[in-house]
Design brief:
This protein has 18 helices and eleven strands. By secondary structure, the protein is α+β, with helices and mostly antiparallel strands. The strands form three sheets. Strands 1, 2, 3, 4 and 6 form a five-stranded antiparallel beta sheet that branches.
Length: 514
Amino acid sequence: MFAYLRLLRAGFILAREGAFSLAENQPLPPSARLAIKCARLIEKRDVRKTGRVTRLANALNRLGPTYVKFGQLLATRRDIVGPDVAADLAQLQDAMPPFDARLVPNLLKEALGEDAAALSDISEPIAAASIAQVHKATLTLPDGTSETVAVKLLRPGIVQRFHRDLQGLRAAARALETLIPSTRRFNGQRVVDTLSRSATLEMDLRMEAAAISEMADNNVEDDGFRVPKLYWAQTARSVLTTNWIDAIPVRDAEAIAKAGLDGSKLAITLIQSFLKHAIRDGFFHADMHPGNLFADPETGAIVAVDLGIMGRIGLPERRFLAQILHGFITRDYKRIAQMHFDIGYVPADQSVDDFAQALRAIGEPLVGRGADEISMARVLGQLLETTEVFNMSARPELVLLQKNMVLVEGTARMLDPKFNMWTAAEPVVGDWVRRQVGPLGHIDRARDGLGEAVSLFTRLPGFAARAERVLAQIEADQHRARRRDRVTVALKWTALLGVVLAIALMAVMLFGGR
């Protein structure tokens, strides 16, 4: 009941802020169109003067952090909301008013215990998002020295609020699928489950700390890219402490130029680092908007913060992605098409040649154009749209990668308007492809196969023991079943004999006296 009341409130706010205007040109049944027209009757007068992005952003921000995160998640699901709405949602900013700074000392004490005493000079909130906010502070180290640090704190009560709001979203998904059966193909409840899992991970700041640690290990031999330093003693489920990043936001082109940094080199470093993380490591920062990226004036390195949302892609997907990008660079469309079939992304009942033709329609318009005019992110987005025509199932990890590539590419062009994305990408993508399809790649795959075979061989005794136990259990069950069958047969014969004897006894009693 409470879930539906919260859902009713959400619907009222969405209607007041004009969010239902997004459904104006959508293919909906007549009953749904009528409901939307009725909902738009209570729209604010001034919202009709604003754009769709403003209307939806206002509504989601009023509804709170859960709905902001839901909007950001839908921005990665073009297959559900369509490219236009996804583009609108992608511009949704995760910014909220900060909570009262006077609560901070008690929150730190509850989360860190005695280790909270090492933090002092805690500032007013520097930045506030839907889940957490950041403060500047001084950390006294065990050796008596001090460091300036950034302390990230979860909003009080945010976990409970998310769980309450998710109940409303689940109720909405169920109601929508009941009222409009055609919406079941969007798997609304699965989308809510994805949001639930993502938010649960994001609301445990130890997971972000682990992501920072893993990325630091992956980049230990790389120049030009780094992540903050962790302080584990001052990190808990609701608190994350890192060193303070004293660097220039990448969006501040004037400050970057004054610091003597080369914007074109920073752009190359940014895109090559991102591709290394995605293709080489299979682990990438999935929220690399300009607000999360800084340029270090001393080293010229890119510094990334806010690693709460990370993406992972497996080795087959990494090989696939690298060869897809390389295939567009070399115009080998048949190879790209065949790879989609080989990896199982496109069903075997589709035509490889037809798919290659569709890919050519994407790639050939790029020929002869300046590299600074060609968007790699747009190419990957068109590729994902084309695969839908050929019944390719949605690949969330590739959609998330494509969404992040839009952010990275946009930031690179902010640093260098004439940035050549393809030239910058080729060393990373080309080296990876040459390694994977060349002799070294065959050696790597043979080594992987040998490792799997050895692992399987070492597990054979365990498999045999489990098989023996299963067979013994089956034999015991069969033996018990046979015993039950014999007992059942005996009982049946005994019952039958009893009936016969009873009939005989009754006959004797009735006719014996005669």
